[in-house]
Amino acid sequence: MFTLIKREIEDHIAYFLGAAILSSTLVVLSIWAAYNYKDEPPIYSIGLLYSIGLSIPVIVILVIGFPAMGASQMYTDRNRKISAFLSALPVTRGRILVARIITGILAILTVLAPLTITATVLWHLLMPPVPIYPCPIFDMFVTALLMVFACYCLGLLTGWASSKVTPTLAGLALTFVLIPLIMVKGFGLHTAVILVLFIIASLIRIWQKFMSTAL
Amino acid sequence: MNENVIEVENLVKYFDGRCVLDGINLKVPRGCIYGLLGRNASGKTTIIRILLGLEPPTRGQTFLLGAESANLSAKVHSRIGYVAEGHNLIQNYTVGRLIKLCKDLSLHWNDKFFEHLTETFRLPMDRRIGQLSIGMRAQLNLSLALAIDPELLILDDPTLGLDTVARRQFLELAIDLIGQQNRTILFSSHILSDVERIADRIGILAGGKLVVDCALEELKNRVKKFRLIFPESAPENLYLTEIVNKEIEGREIAITVTNWNQQKQNMLETFKPSSCTELPMSLEDIFIECTKPDAVPLAHL
């Protein structure tokens, strides 16, 4: 399994580099904004405006970048007959797919984990304790992880389909349904449950398609 | 040890409504070198791909080393070496990287034998697979398949693209492998002289059916071709059974018959031909006779 994950990472290293650059840029910007505007009141502060201004392009990058990675993994496989070659070795199709999904999760964590750690540390250092809602960062992290992973799963489905136009459009439409979902429902259990159900459905479909298609 | 390494039961495969395989039944015992022959698009590669679980069958079941093809475990895969038609390797990898990947994924790897092969074939480790010639890709694919000391080796037209010297090297390697006990080889090829040289059992696919499935020597002994010349015009019907092919031209008839015996000989003599000559048949001749569009399918010999 480790060899398969390593192979996936090496083959899609550009996405990992992109994720690492995005993550480190956001970490630096967060620290800079937090220290420069720490004395201003939280509401109406320039720091908050910066955060909102930054979060929009970041969300767009995440919900487009990770589906693109999923689609690229599957499309490259199909195009270069990689799974057909690997399946002739002591590797099952199931393992190939699991390794691919783990690689996707690792790429997502490359962006989200450093951001979450930085945000948690800054929260504890700079923010006064808020007794009503003490730690929104964990909820935000879980929701963001599930949302990006759901988009990634859509990418996997699109990449494996032989016809590209319909699934791409459907994937994009569904991706942009997920963003308003979070805006309406907010972070928390309700959104997480909806996203988890969506992810399970996507994974079952990918599994069924990947295991039954001719390689 | 007499068990079957490969088993195919009533295999049917349709592609876009076209029947490619129509009820194939096949058993390959351990230690056998089975040559699978057929014209282009006769279904040889499809059978191999279904056996390896790369293609789902429309109907029927296939088994490799006792395990159902659709559910081959990694352990069973580790006992099978496969050389795909067109040498389906990862094109953007270097030779060295591909070898490392295969080695890391294999449960057993014969370093010494693999080094011997790469030295024999002079494979360049730093070149990308896509930059290799077809012949070199074939050599690399074969080396990778042999490095795991496979119990079962499946070769789908492995000598395609190889020059004469490389083909000879390949055949010698295959013969070496055959020398090792309990190794089984299934291979398809268009070069019938190669098949004739190493196979001990032959299967011929035509029209979606396995029209021949028997030992090579048996096939040669039982399929006969005669040229008959009659004093006047040749009779339309010779009243012989198991005629694979018949060509009539004026006073002359050329017939290919299976299971030739004294009874058939006597029947033929009642027509009083002025001459009856047996024509020597190579595997290629038998193959051509069996795969002619109007050929009558042979019963399993």
Compact description:
The complex is a heterodimer of chains A (215) and B (301). Chain A is mostly helical and 215 residues long.
Description of the molecule:
The complex is a heterodimer of chains A (215) and B (301). With 215 residues, chain A is mainly α. Chain A has helices at 2-11, 13-36, 46-80, 82-87, 93-126, 136-160, 165-185, 189-212. The longest helix of chain A is centred in the N-terminal third of the chain and has 35 residues, at 46-80. Chain B is α/β, with parallel strands linked by helices and 301 residues long. Chain B has 2 domains: 4-199, 3-Layer(aba) Sandwich (Rossmann fold); 218-291, Alpha-Beta Plaits. Helices cover 31% and strands 30% of the residues of chain B. Chain B has 10 helices and 14 strands. Chain B has helices at 44-51, 74-77, 95-105, 111-121, 134-146, 164-179, 192-198, 216-222, 262-269, 283-291; strands spanning 4-15, 18-29, 33-38, 59-64, 67-68, 80-83, 152-156, 184-188, 201-206, 209-215, 223-229, 243-249, 252-258, 275-279. In chain B, the strands form 3 sheets. Chain B has a 6-stranded mixed sheet, with helices on both faces. In chain B, strands 2-1-4-5 form a 4-stranded antiparallel sheet, covered by helices on one side. The two termini of chain B are 24 Å apart. At the A-B interface, α1 and α4 of A face α2 and α3 of B.
The count of domains of chain A is 1
Number of helices, counting only DSSP H or I runs of 4 residues or more of chain A? 8
Low-confidence stretches of chain A: none
Quaternary organization: heterodimer
CATH names the topology of the largest domain in chain B as Rossmann fold
Q: How would you classify the helix and strand content of chain B by structural class?
A: alpha/beta
CATH level-four homologous superfamily name of the largest domain in chain B: P-loop containing nucleotide triphosphate hydrolases
Termini separation of chain A comes to 20 Å
